[in-house]
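Structure, all two chains, one model.
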Amino acid sequence: MQDVTQMKTTAPPTPGAKAVDIESYFAIQQFLFFEAGLLDRRDYGNWLTLLTDDVSYRVLAYVNRDADVGPLAYALIDEPVSRLKARVEQVLNAKLTHAENPPTLTRRFISNIVAAAGERAGEYVVSSNLLVYRTRPGLSEGALYAGQRTDILRHVETAWRIARREVRLDQSVLQGSISTLF
Amino acid sequence: MQEARVSNGGWVDSAQGVVSREAFVSDDVYRLELARIFEKGWVFLAHETEIPMPGDYVVRTLGKAPVIVIRNRDASIKAMLNSCRHRGAKLCRSDAGNTARFVCPYHGWTYEQDGRLITTTFDAHMPVGMDFSRWGLIPVARLGTYRGLVFGSWDPDAAELETYLGDFRWYIDCFLGRTPAGMQVLAPPHRWRVKANWKIGALNFIGDSQHVFTTHVGPTTLNPLRSSRSGFTKVAERSVQIITTGGHGCTLSYLAPGMSEDAYRTHDPGLTAIYATMLTPAQMHVLHHIRVAVGNVFPNLSFIETQAGSGQKALIVRQWHPLSGSEMEILSWVLAEKEAPEAYKAEVLNSGFHNFGAAGVFEQDDVELWASATQAADNAIAQQYPYSFHTGLPLINSPIPDYEGPGRAFRPVLAEVIQFEFMRHWDRMMTAS
């Protein structure tokens, strides 16, 4: 079986190693909050513009294993930007989606942000915690998804872009399908 | 007003072509299903390639009972209740791993990989003549493997697995037995919960051809490879649905008229060359002419092979595990031939979970509508009015006389024949005296 933990992953930054200045940290934090707001408002069109053309976008979950070997991460989503655009096209067209019609109500909480300089100039490795609460109309209970993000953010001129995103959800059995969760 | 159940005490009215909604939501029905189906017949547990090495195990659920499925030192596979015979703690509290033996974390009872009790740690305090051979882990009564699929049954008197699968093995072979080395699971299964009855999933995969263009309006509209609705209707005329003894069935969607007669254009050419070494000419003929195949092994093991959306053709095996009358856990595996090149396997895995995983683009609209149907049936008023399977009736006694595979085959696939046959088989299991 493919051991996905052997796949190339981006290690979360170590504080102090290549610490960023407070202005950069603040800009990164504001960018992540802004991005979360776009997603919560389902403004996926503008959200897509925050991704680089070569973005690597992955969502992982875990197989629970004994403590000596630890949890095994495996991919739920591993997509280029073209497939993300196709997902967005589907869920933003009311005639083409049942899963998002009526729309899911979603609230993201981004915290525990740690940022460090990346390997290339203008790049930052940023880890953060993610908590998403989603409510599907018609279902009385919402679903919670918690996880850790490790992003590579690129500072291009005056704008910030996401060059890599890896989300590790702290779950082995998901509360529901995540087809329309970005 | 109609009663929730029909006159024979079951839920399916064969003459009227209707099924009680109660069957799709009631916890009483779920408890009866546990006793009559999930603790009685053969139920899928794992694929043998999930546990390739001695000591490898996965923990699954058989009926409602947690079960360890483990590869032994002699390469055989064993399965037993994941609960110590002493005071019942779980031997394995992880979902998967590798172990030389089972040591209960509670008081230390220790078992071999095959479940035999080695020591209780306090053997000296046991009564004289204590028979350890009677205090091994509780075995799954029957265990069988077919084409890598490991099934278990809690019924010691269950028929042999090959007998249970019967003629449907012919179709299983087409997808899981077509190369000498067989198929392998490419990654751990995606697992997610859906607030819907498990039978809706089984019906969907045995062959709900009517839902494709309404439920999946998004991917079918956006995908440039997809045929039009009128084109799909033509395909449906040519396609075939098959039900075999035991309630197993599949729907084989044939290539559209005028479409290149090359169903393998997205398969690895090195693989397709060896299919003929394993399959009969009739099976090869079927494989050559179908574009999409879906099926369900009774009760809750489904498969789909399709080139859905943009991407590689992929084989997905899917289990609809009931948690109650109104909720299930879906487990979804992606498989490829062991002989396939690694790059091909990676493409299959990626395409498979893009379309049919926990984040699958086809998945999203299915589960939304299944949950809505389940929720709307969870009341006494709705349960007075049955579900319609009427389109199954006109054809149900008119199978194609000369179909090349076993079982009873029907055309076109837009009639709900084998979905209704699945429900009739389920009803017989549920009402048998």
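Residues 87 and 179 of chain A are 8 Å apart (CA to CA).
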